[in-house]
Amino acid sequence: MGKVILVTGPARSGKSEWAETLAMQSGKVVVYIATANDNPDDQEWHKRIQKHQNRRPQDWVTLCVPIELSATLADAKPNTCLLVDSLGTWVANFLEQDDLSWENVLTELLETVQLVAADMLFVAEETGWGVVPAYPLGRTFRDRLGSLVRQLGLLSEAVYLVTGGHVLNLSVLGSPLPNIE
User: Fold this and answer.
1) Would residue 96 count as lying in a domain?
2) Does residue 178 form part of some domain?
3) With a cut of 50, which residues of the chain have pLDDT below it?
4) CB of 29 within 8 A of CB of 180?
5) Backbone angles phi, psi at 10, to 5 degrees
6) What is the C-alpha to C-alpha distance for residues 124 and 141, in angstroms, rounded to an integer?
7) Which DSSP state fits 39?
8) pLDDT of residue 137
9) Binding-site sequence positions
10) Of 52, 53, 133, 171, which one is the catalytic site residue?
11) CA distances in angstroms from 102 to 8, 57, 81, listed in the order given
């Protein structure tokens, strides 16, 4: 298994920038895996994507992978560093699936991560730090993303929390919980 790193934190905290810094420091060919689709009709979303694209080195390979993340990871060459940004968007792409279908997708991803020889950096949003969503789909999103982040964190060599303009290495500062839910 390659090196797995998880970078998590709230919106606009600098998660992506920190993950990009780690990818550059890897010294490997970087493959940026975007989980969002660009929507030219949504100018605000398009500007966000452009900002991310403009910040990245031009020699990075960029793949748009809104669904087939496991297959994309499985196809990676060992000498690469994969940067997946973001897991929250990827989870949102599956919200219409029933719980059993989602569990199968989640299991496939976590099993694939353990087999990939490439280094992998995952960016994930923290969603459960506030009010419980008042609608079922919001709770489903929060619960699915939270569970994925927890399980991926247990597979990660390093877990970083980016918040308040600071990066904390949780792998050094904390202790992992057992993998039970």
Assistant:
1) yes
2) no
3) none
4) no
5) -75, 175
6) 13
7) -
8) 94
9) 9-16, 34-36, 85
10) 52
11) 21, 34, 26
Structural domain that includes position 54 = 4-173
Number of domains the chain contains: 1
Q: Transcribe 92-113 into DSSP letters.
A: HTTTTS-HHHHHHHHHHHHHHH
Nearest to 56 by CA among 90, 17, 2: 17
80-85 β-sheet, strand order: 61-64, 29-34, 80-85, 119-125, 4-9, 158-163, 166-169
- In the block, tokens 């993998």 appear at 179
Three-state SS for 43-69 is: HHHHHHHHHHHHHCCCCCEEEECCCCH
> What is the torsional sign of CA 22, 90, 145, 151?
negative
- Burial of residue 133 (CB within 10 Å: 0-12, 13-18, 19+) is middle
What is the structure's pLDDT at 48? 82
Residues 6+ apart with CB under 8 A from 160: 5, 6, 7, 8, 9, 18, 167, 168, 169, 170
Question: Does residue 154 fall inside a structural domain?
Answer: yes
Look up residue 176 and give its amino acid.
Answer: P
Q: Has 52 been annotated as catalytic?
A: yes
**Whole-number pLDDT of residue 132:** 87
The CA distance from 69 to 34, in Å, is 10
**Cβ(179)–Cβ(155) under 8 Å?**
no
